């Protein structure tokens, strides 16, 4: 397979076929279906954007990974790395086998989620509410992640109608340039009408009393299974 080098911004149909190891006709069909971004030169020759070929190769790699593993592939976005340790430890005791990718930065988490296309996405309850709204917004809009279940704190779901009015120093620099758009999306069911948003207990005082010294993440296994079932539905 021919490698795509950094200086190659676009390739011919024949070069693209060699990269993808498919026929010329398949490449043309992929262009027609919008799977590859292309245009024609004045001479009528088709040129295909190299970055769209990279994306297609990444999708193929993800599909192969998912076919060769029976484990659930999850993406966890956390506020601090130590927040992920408890969940990772709990997962080791589950019957459900989970490969957990971890990110402690929202932007990095978004990019990883698009690249990996996991079976589900877990948002740590300590991520500021406004930042969680941004994550849900972008994950719900991206074609590679919009059908992936997102696990969020039940307390965040109850809070969401007024979440855009919150002032939190931790959200400086991550606010949307047009917060009124997100507010409108909230009002139109970005969270409460999205069947792929699944709540998990994280900030429930009654739950803390019931658990005692137990790890709250022990309760997450059936919720992970629920998310996987909802994805397949």
Query: What is the SS-derived class?
Result: alpha/beta
Number of strands: 8
Largest sheet: 5 strands, parallel
Overall mean confidence score, pLDDT: 77
Order of helices and strands: EHHEEHEHEHEHEHHEHH
Q: Please compute the radius of gyration using only Cα atoms.
A: 21 Å
Shape: elongated
N-to-C CA distance: 37 Å
Widest β-sheet, arrangement of strands: 5-4-6-7-8
Continuous helix count: 10
State the helicity in percent bands. 40-55%
Give the oligomeric state of the chains in this entry, treating copies of one chain as homo and distinct chains as hetero.
single chain
Beta-strand residue fraction: 5-15%
The poorly predicted ranges are 166-178, 207-211
SSE layout and pairing:
Layout: E1 10-12, H1 13-20, H2 24-32, E2 38-40, E3 46-49, H3 50-68, E4 72-77, H4 82-91, E5 98-103, H5 106-116, E6 120-123, H6 129-141, E7 150-153, H7 154-159, H8 179-187, E8 197-200, H9 205-211, H10 220-232
Parallel strand pairs: 4-5, 4-6, 6-7, 7-8
Antiparallel strand pairs: 1-3, 2-3
Helix pairs in contact: 1-2, 5-6
Description of the structure:
- With 233 residues, this protein is of the alpha/beta class.
- It is 45% helix and 15% strand.
- It has 10 helices and 8 strands.
- The chain has helices spanning 13-20, 24-32, 50-68, 82-91, 106-116, 129-141, 154-159, 179-187, 205-211, 220-232, and strands at residues 10-12, 38-40, 46-49, 72-77, 98-103, 120-123, 150-153, 197-200.
- It has a 5-stranded parallel β-sheet. It has a 3-stranded antiparallel β-sheet with strand order 1-3-2.
- Helix 4 (82-91) links the parallel strand 4 and strand 5.
- Helix 1 (13-20) packs across helix 2 and helix 5 (106-116) packs parallel to helix 6 (129-141).
- The longest helix is centred in the N-terminal third of the chain and has 19 residues, at 50-68.
- It is elongated.
- It starts with 9 loop residues before the first strand and ends with a helix.
């Amino acid at each position: 397979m021919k490698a795509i080098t950094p200086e190659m911004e676009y390739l011919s149909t024949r070069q693209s076929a060699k990269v993808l190891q498919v026929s010329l006709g398949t490449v043309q069909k992929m262009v027609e279906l919008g799977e590859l971004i292309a245009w024609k030169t004045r001479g009528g020759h088709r040129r295909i954007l190299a970055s769209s070929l990279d994306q297609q190769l990444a999708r193929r790699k993800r599909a192969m990974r998912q076919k060769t593993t029976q484990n659930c592939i999850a993406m966890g976005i956390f506020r601090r790395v130590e927040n992920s340790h408890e969940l990772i430890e709990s997962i080791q005791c589950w019957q459900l086998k989970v490969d957990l990718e971890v990110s402690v930065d929202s932007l990095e988490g978004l990019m990883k989620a698009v690249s990996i296309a996991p079976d589900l996405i877990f948002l740590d309850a300590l991520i500021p509410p406004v930042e969680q709204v941004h994550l849900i917004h972008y994950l719900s809009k991206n074609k590679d992640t919009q059908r992936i279940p997102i696990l969020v704190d039940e307390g965040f779901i109850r809070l969401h109608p007024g979440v855009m009015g919150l002032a939190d120093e931790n959200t400086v620099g991550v606010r949307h340039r047009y917060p009124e758009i997100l507010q409108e999306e909230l009002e139109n069911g970005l969270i409460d009408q999205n069947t792929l948003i699944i709540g998990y207990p994280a900030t429930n005082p009654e739950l803390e009393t019931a658990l005692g010294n137990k790890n709250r993440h022990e309760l997450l296994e059936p919720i992970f299974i629920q998310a996987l079932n909802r994805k397949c539905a």
